[in-house]
Design a protein that fits this description.
With about 190 residues, the chain is mainly β. The chain contains 1 helix and 18 strands. It has one helix spanning about 45-50; strands spanning about 20, 55-60, 65-70, 70-75, 80-85, 90-95, 105, 110-115, 120, 130, 140, 145-150, 155-160, 160-165, 165-170, 170-175, 180-185, 190. It has a 6-stranded parallel sheet with strand order 1-2-5-8-11-15. Strands 3-6-9-12-16 form a 5-stranded parallel sheet, with no helix packed on it.
Length: about 190
């Protein structure tokens, strides 16, 4: 599980695009994120730097931890979000629903990958950790942990029809009464998923 990180990718998956590094501890919004010594600070900042269908990979450091209070829309096709992990540490996205329910990560474009994240909840109720909008196809969600305390309602929600999405090696850890679904198909057919 341990990965060497360098500006050229190190042990990361090969790509035709660029690596964009993300770390809340050492990152800054003014950085371009192209070198691990000068990462951006948030997932949203890194995602905004990605180019559609060019193979860009966001690399979240193992100790990256951020709290969000609104949805992060993943609307650029062909982007991968890759969480680096050590034995005990992996990047964590915490959704704080105290200001009202929302979805953490919403896929509004296909052909994307999310790997190696922990998604959890604090504060008030959160609608879902991830939602796949209707008609969004060819996603890979892998090796993620959905830490589901009382205010986590759904881990992954399909908002409608989807084709060719793969969810593999994910864990849904319910730590208190309250969660209703690990994965829910709430409307529309799931084909080859």
């Amino acid at each position: 599980d341990q990965v060497t990180v360098s500006a050229t990718g190190g042990g990361l998956p090969y790509t035709t695009g660029k690596y964009i590094f993300v770390d809340n501890a050492t990152g800054a919004s003014g950085n371009d994120g192209l070198d691990p010594s000068a990462p951006v600070a948030t997932l949203a900042q890194g995602y905004a730097l990605a180019t559609a269908d060019s193979g860009d990979i966001l690399v979240l450091f193992p100790s990256h931890a951020e709290t969000i209070t609104a949805t992060i829309t993943l609307g650029t096709s062909g982007v991968a979000i890759y969480g680096l992990r050590t034995v005990y540490t992996r990047p964590t996205i915490t959704m704080n629903g105290a200001g009202g329910a929302f979805t953490g990560l919403t896929f509004s474009a296909g052909d994307q990958r999310v790997s190696g994240l922990t998604v959890t909840v604090t504060g008030g109720a959160v609608t879902a950790g991830m939602i796949v909008n209707a008609g969004i196809n060819s996603l890979i969600i892998e090796d993620c942990i959905f830490d589901m305390p009382a205010n986590a309602r759904i881990g992954i929600d399909f908002g409608g029809a989807s084709t060719g999405t793969s969810i593999t090696r994910c864990r849904f850890e319910v730590t208190a009464n309250g969660p209703t679904f690990g994965i829910r198909a709430s409307g529309g057919a799931l084909t080859r998923c």
